[in-house]
Write a structure and sequence with these properties.
The complex is a heterodimer of chains A (151) and B (89). Chain A is 29% helix and 38% strand. Chain A contains three helices and eight strands. In chain A, helix 2 packs antiparallel against helix 3. Chain B is α+β, with helices and mostly antiparallel strands and 89 residues long. Chain B starts with a strand and ends in a 6-residue tail after the last strand. Classes of the chains: A alpha+beta (151), B alpha+beta (89). At the A-B interface, strand 4, helix 2, helix 3 and strand 7 of A face loops of B.
Protein backbone atom coordinates (compact mmCIF):
# COMPACT_ATOMS: atom_id res chain seq x y z
CA UNK A 1 0.00 0.00 0.00
CA UNK A 2 1.27 3.41 -0.88
CA UNK A 3 0.44 7.06 -0.24
CA UNK A 4 2.64 9.90 -1.50
CA UNK A 5 1.70 13.57 -1.56
CA UNK A 6 2.96 17.15 -1.50
CA UNK A 7 1.15 19.27 1.11
CA UNK A 8 0.97 23.04 0.62
CA UNK A 9 1.72 24.62 4.02
CA UNK A 10 -0.66 27.50 3.28
CA UNK A 11 -3.57 25.06 2.92
CA UNK A 12 -2.83 22.28 5.41
CA UNK A 13 -0.21 20.41 7.39
CA UNK A 14 1.35 17.00 7.14
CA UNK A 15 0.11 14.79 9.91
CA UNK A 16 1.79 12.09 11.99
CA UNK A 17 -1.68 10.85 12.99
CA UNK A 18 -2.68 10.38 9.34
CA UNK A 19 0.59 8.51 8.72
CA UNK A 20 -0.01 6.28 11.75
CA UNK A 21 -3.52 5.42 10.60
CA UNK A 22 -2.36 4.68 7.05
CA UNK A 23 0.45 2.28 7.95
CA UNK A 24 -1.40 0.28 10.61
CA UNK A 25 -1.62 -3.29 9.34
CA UNK A 26 -2.14 -6.64 11.06
CA UNK A 27 0.21 -8.21 8.51
CA UNK A 28 3.14 -6.06 9.66
CA UNK A 29 5.21 -6.67 12.77
CA UNK A 30 7.32 -3.52 12.44
CA UNK A 31 6.71 0.12 11.68
CA UNK A 32 9.05 3.11 11.57
CA UNK A 33 8.61 6.88 11.28
CA UNK A 34 11.20 9.19 9.76
CA UNK A 35 10.36 12.83 10.44
CA UNK A 36 12.42 15.63 8.94
CA UNK A 37 12.29 19.00 10.74
CA UNK A 38 13.80 22.45 10.21
CA UNK A 39 16.89 22.96 12.41
CA UNK A 40 18.32 26.28 13.54
CA UNK A 41 21.75 26.17 11.87
CA UNK A 42 23.42 25.25 8.60
CA UNK A 43 26.83 26.17 7.12
CA UNK A 44 27.65 28.41 10.13
CA UNK A 45 24.47 30.44 9.66
CA UNK A 46 21.50 30.83 12.01
CA UNK A 47 18.46 29.48 10.22
CA UNK A 48 15.01 30.87 11.08
CA UNK A 49 12.95 28.82 8.61
CA UNK A 50 12.92 27.16 5.19
CA UNK A 51 10.72 27.71 2.16
CA UNK A 52 10.29 24.52 0.16
CA UNK A 53 9.56 24.66 -3.57
CA UNK A 54 8.26 21.63 -5.44
CA UNK A 55 7.25 20.40 -8.88
CA UNK A 56 4.27 18.60 -7.37
CA UNK A 57 3.42 16.26 -10.26
CA UNK A 58 6.99 15.01 -10.71
CA UNK A 59 7.48 14.77 -6.94
CA UNK A 60 4.44 12.54 -6.50
CA UNK A 61 5.47 10.44 -9.53
CA UNK A 62 8.96 10.14 -8.08
CA UNK A 63 7.64 9.01 -4.67
CA UNK A 64 5.73 6.17 -6.39
CA UNK A 65 8.74 5.16 -8.51
CA UNK A 66 10.95 5.03 -5.41
CA UNK A 67 8.34 2.91 -3.59
CA UNK A 68 8.07 0.48 -6.54
CA UNK A 69 11.87 0.18 -6.75
CA UNK A 70 12.23 -0.32 -3.02
CA UNK A 71 9.76 -3.19 -2.76
CA UNK A 72 11.49 -4.93 -5.68
CA UNK A 73 15.05 -4.40 -4.45
CA UNK A 74 14.33 -5.21 -0.83
CA UNK A 75 11.93 -8.08 -1.67
CA UNK A 76 9.38 -6.90 0.90
CA UNK A 77 6.26 -8.69 2.02
CA UNK A 78 3.18 -6.58 2.76
CA UNK A 79 4.99 -3.21 2.63
CA UNK A 80 3.05 -0.09 3.57
CA UNK A 81 4.53 3.34 2.81
CA UNK A 82 3.26 6.84 3.60
CA UNK A 83 5.28 9.81 2.29
CA UNK A 84 4.28 13.46 2.61
CA UNK A 85 6.50 16.48 1.97
CA UNK A 86 5.66 20.07 2.82
CA UNK A 87 5.71 22.83 0.22
CA UNK A 88 5.95 26.49 1.24
CA UNK A 89 7.28 28.07 4.44
CA UNK A 90 8.20 25.84 7.39
CA UNK A 91 9.35 27.54 10.62
CA UNK A 92 12.02 26.23 13.01
CA UNK A 93 11.04 22.83 14.35
CA UNK A 94 8.31 22.44 11.73
CA UNK A 95 7.95 19.15 9.87
CA UNK A 96 9.18 19.08 6.28
CA UNK A 97 8.75 15.38 5.56
CA UNK A 98 7.19 12.25 7.01
CA UNK A 99 8.17 8.82 5.75
CA UNK A 100 6.18 6.21 7.66
CA UNK A 101 6.72 2.58 6.72
CA UNK A 102 5.50 -0.81 7.88
CA UNK A 103 6.62 -4.30 6.88
CA UNK A 104 6.80 -7.85 8.20
CA UNK A 105 10.16 -7.54 10.04
CA UNK A 106 12.20 -4.80 11.77
CA UNK A 107 15.25 -4.98 9.47
CA UNK A 108 12.96 -4.37 6.50
CA UNK A 109 11.51 -1.11 7.83
CA UNK A 110 14.97 0.33 8.57
CA UNK A 111 16.17 -0.55 5.05
CA UNK A 112 12.98 0.70 3.43
CA UNK A 113 12.88 4.04 5.23
CA UNK A 114 16.57 4.71 4.56
CA UNK A 115 16.25 3.80 0.88
CA UNK A 116 13.30 6.17 0.41
CA UNK A 117 14.89 9.25 2.03
CA UNK A 118 18.23 8.79 0.26
CA UNK A 119 16.54 8.44 -3.15
CA UNK A 120 14.31 11.47 -2.50
CA UNK A 121 17.41 13.56 -1.78
CA UNK A 122 19.05 12.38 -5.03
CA UNK A 123 16.26 12.81 -7.52
CA UNK A 124 12.94 14.24 -6.31
CA UNK A 125 12.37 17.84 -7.49
CA UNK A 126 12.09 19.65 -4.17
CA UNK A 127 14.21 22.70 -3.33
CA UNK A 128 15.07 24.51 -0.09
CA UNK A 129 15.43 28.24 0.40
CA UNK A 130 16.88 28.89 3.85
CA UNK A 131 16.05 32.08 5.75
CA UNK A 132 18.61 33.50 8.21
CA UNK A 133 18.54 35.72 11.28
CA UNK A 134 20.18 38.57 9.31
CA UNK A 135 17.08 38.63 7.03
CA UNK A 136 19.06 37.15 4.13
CA UNK A 137 17.95 33.97 2.37
CA UNK A 138 19.58 31.53 0.02
CA UNK A 139 18.69 28.53 -2.14
CA UNK A 140 20.72 25.50 -1.13
CA UNK A 141 22.92 23.82 -3.71
CA UNK A 142 21.53 20.37 -4.44
CA UNK A 143 22.12 17.24 -6.49
CA UNK A 144 21.74 17.44 -10.29
CA UNK A 145 18.93 15.15 -11.45
CA UNK A 146 20.94 14.11 -14.52
CA UNK A 147 24.65 14.30 -15.14
CA UNK A 148 24.77 17.27 -17.51
CA UNK A 149 28.59 17.23 -17.43
CA UNK A 150 28.54 14.16 -19.69
CA UNK A 151 26.36 15.75 -22.37
CA UNK B 1 9.98 29.35 -32.68
CA UNK B 2 8.96 30.32 -29.17
CA UNK B 3 9.04 28.09 -26.11
CA UNK B 4 8.11 28.65 -22.49
CA UNK B 5 10.16 27.52 -19.49
CA UNK B 6 8.49 27.22 -16.11
CA UNK B 7 10.93 28.15 -13.32
CA UNK B 8 11.53 26.19 -10.10
CA UNK B 9 13.89 26.35 -7.14
CA UNK B 10 16.91 28.61 -7.52
CA UNK B 11 15.93 29.29 -11.15
CA UNK B 12 12.94 31.28 -9.88
CA UNK B 13 15.41 34.12 -9.31
CA UNK B 14 15.99 34.40 -13.08
CA UNK B 15 12.74 36.37 -13.50
CA UNK B 16 10.01 38.19 -11.60
CA UNK B 17 7.54 35.93 -13.44
CA UNK B 18 7.41 32.21 -12.77
CA UNK B 19 8.37 31.47 -16.38
CA UNK B 20 10.68 32.63 -19.18
CA UNK B 21 9.94 32.74 -22.90
CA UNK B 22 12.76 32.00 -25.32
CA UNK B 23 12.97 32.44 -29.09
CA UNK B 24 14.89 29.57 -30.69
CA UNK B 25 15.80 28.44 -34.25
CA UNK B 26 13.05 26.36 -35.98
CA UNK B 27 14.88 23.10 -35.31
CA UNK B 28 15.91 23.11 -31.68
CA UNK B 29 16.42 20.67 -28.85
CA UNK B 30 17.01 20.98 -25.11
CA UNK B 31 20.68 21.60 -25.94
CA UNK B 32 19.71 24.88 -27.67
CA UNK B 33 17.47 25.79 -24.72
CA UNK B 34 20.39 25.40 -22.32
CA UNK B 35 22.66 27.50 -24.60
CA UNK B 36 20.01 30.17 -25.15
CA UNK B 37 19.28 30.34 -21.44
CA UNK B 38 23.01 30.72 -20.68
CA UNK B 39 23.17 33.60 -23.20
CA UNK B 40 20.13 35.21 -21.52
CA UNK B 41 21.77 34.94 -18.09
CA UNK B 42 25.10 36.34 -19.32
CA UNK B 43 23.31 39.26 -20.91
CA UNK B 44 20.90 40.03 -18.02
CA UNK B 45 23.11 39.07 -15.05
CA UNK B 46 26.70 39.40 -16.40
CA UNK B 47 28.30 39.18 -12.94
CA UNK B 48 26.31 36.24 -11.63
CA UNK B 49 28.38 33.06 -12.14
CA UNK B 50 26.05 31.21 -9.77
CA UNK B 51 23.09 31.57 -12.15
CA UNK B 52 25.18 30.20 -15.05
CA UNK B 53 26.17 27.22 -12.90
CA UNK B 54 22.49 26.55 -12.18
CA UNK B 55 21.72 26.49 -15.93
CA UNK B 56 24.64 24.11 -16.52
CA UNK B 57 23.62 21.73 -13.72
CA UNK B 58 19.85 21.74 -14.34
CA UNK B 59 17.70 19.10 -15.94
CA UNK B 60 14.56 19.86 -17.97
CA UNK B 61 11.14 18.18 -17.89
CA UNK B 62 8.47 18.11 -20.61
CA UNK B 63 4.71 18.54 -20.30
CA UNK B 64 4.33 14.82 -19.61
CA UNK B 65 6.46 15.31 -16.47
CA UNK B 66 9.37 13.30 -17.90
CA UNK B 67 13.01 14.34 -17.59
CA UNK B 68 14.26 15.02 -21.13
CA UNK B 69 17.85 15.04 -22.31
CA UNK B 70 19.79 17.48 -24.45
CA UNK B 71 18.80 15.75 -27.74
CA UNK B 72 15.03 16.02 -27.02
CA UNK B 73 13.46 17.90 -29.96
CA UNK B 74 11.10 20.81 -29.38
CA UNK B 75 8.32 22.34 -31.46
CA UNK B 76 6.79 25.81 -31.54
CA UNK B 77 5.08 26.67 -28.23
CA UNK B 78 6.67 23.72 -26.40
CA UNK B 79 6.67 24.05 -22.65
CA UNK B 80 9.49 22.84 -20.44
CA UNK B 81 10.22 23.02 -16.73
CA UNK B 82 13.72 23.73 -15.52
CA UNK B 83 14.74 21.36 -12.72
CA UNK B 84 17.74 22.80 -10.84
CA UNK B 85 19.78 20.47 -8.59
CA UNK B 86 17.38 19.02 -6.01
CA UNK B 87 17.58 18.71 -2.25
CA UNK B 88 14.40 17.96 -0.38
CA UNK B 89 13.90 16.18 2.92
Amino acid sequence: MFHGKVIDASKGAISIDAAQKFITSEKCGASLFFIGTVRNHNNNKNVTGITYDSHDAIVEKSFKEIYDEAIQKLKLEYPVVFIEHTKGYVPLGGISIIIAVAAKHRSQVYDLSRYIIEEIKKRTPIWKKEHYDDNESDWLKGNPVIDTEKK
Amino acid sequence: MKIKIELFGAARDFSKEDFLELTLPEISSVKEVRENLADFIQSKYPDNANYLEIVKRSAFANEQNEIVHDDYQLSNHSKLCIIPPVGGG
